[in-house]
Amino acid sequence: MKIGIVGAGIGGLTLAALLRGKGYDVYVFEKKTHIEEVGAGLGIGDNVLQKLGGHDLAKGLKNEGQLLETMRVRDDKGQVLSDVTFSKETTNLALLRQSLVETIASYVDIKVIHFNREVTDIKVSETGVSLDFSSSPTEHFDLVVGADGLRSKIRQTVFPDSKVLYQGYTCFRGIVDDMSQIGQVAEEYWGKKGRFGIVPLLNGKAYWFATMNAKEKDVKYLHFNKPYLQAYFNHFPEKVRTVLDKQSETDILHHDIYDLKPLKSFVYQNRVVLIGDAAHATTPNMGQGAGQAMEDAIVLANVLNKYDVLQALKRYNQLRVKHTAKVIKRSRKIGKMAQKEGSLGIKMRNKFMRTIPNQLIARQTRFLYKTKSE
Ligand SMILES: Cc1cc2nc3c(=O)[nH]c(=O)nc-3n(C[C@H](O)[C@H](O)[C@H](O)COP(=O)(O)OP(=O)(O)OC[C@H]3O[C@@H](n4cnc5c(N)ncnc54)[C@H](O)[C@@H]3O)c2cc1C
């Protein structure tokens, strides 16, 4: 079977790694000229590592990832609102985005990745599916996998009614050194003017993110550089101020936060299938975007290996559509709670957070482990 994968991001590369040596004729098309990821850090939870099972990629990720022990939320005065310690039997990792992508890519046969190949159109016929490119001839496949991210050309073509939704807040991110004192604890500070998160990485590095409520493409935040961020968060606890002090003037990333209105199917005419952000982009509040993209790839590789294509795509839909819709909705809900504005609302939220048992909070993510990989 000839399979075209559009996008050499986290999902596309994972799929290419898992299909390697399984008898498929795989082509990965990437519009960029090489594997270079813009980004700070990412979480990869035990839900992904479990699904990878004995594949060497799991070992590779464990080598590159910082083990996380605790996820803590504080208010902007430093008072603990929730404190969830991960079970010792689970492995939850934080990685530099670049390391994650390079690690996955190291398990892909480099010959199958075709850079500088932007897909401009997709056409499905009874006999197959073809891809058009911006600067090379059309190519034909038995199956095309849209792994081309939030603004997926593939999704927009086959499901033109799909909707990317702005979630009302904007996000700054960066990476800093000399942060080994934070140990294995990921922390978020939820304040009146926004939220600040700090997550440890290997070698004493840490990634941070700051979110604030804003209009879409808000001009107010267009030139928000280090001094602005320092001023904005100067009433937050010392750890936050230390992180911003350590941040270089450049290399601060800024993105508005979007997710996708859940789709009813990830499969089109049994010739096109979507994975990752193309299928179900989610807000970053559960740290599951990359993880769910990898899970899609694992499930898709498993079902293709087990069933004929029709059966495989049907099963992929059964296993992934509802589950990822739940991730989108829950993550959105957490975002709404974390980005709350107004003194009264925040006071009530904080009181609720302090009284709710930590085990109950941990239970909110238990569904992530219950999905099958086939
Ligand atoms: C602020 C922020 C914080 C985040 N934090 C986390 C986190 O903590 N944990 C987590 O798990 N996730 C997080 N995510 C989400 C995560 O980055 C994505 O979910 C993940 O990258 C999705 O992988 P993907 O392979 O589906 O898409 P992408 O990684 O976006 O890859 C898509 C690839 O397709 C290529 N492409 C696009 N269009 C075309 C085309 N027409 N032709 C050819 N190639 C094309 C792109 O160049 C890209 O390489 C965060 C996202 C944001 C915005």
UniProtKB/TrEMBL annotation:
Xref: InterPro entries: FAD-bd, FAD/NAD-bd_sf
One term of GO molecular function: monooxygenase activity
Residue intervals of the FAD-binding domain: 3-330
Gene3D superfamilies in the record: FAD/NAD(P)-binding domain
SUPFAM superfamilies: FAD/NAD(P)-binding domain (SSF51905)
Superkingdom classification of source: Bacteria
The protein's name: FAD-dependent monooxygenase
Gene source species: Staphylococcus ratti
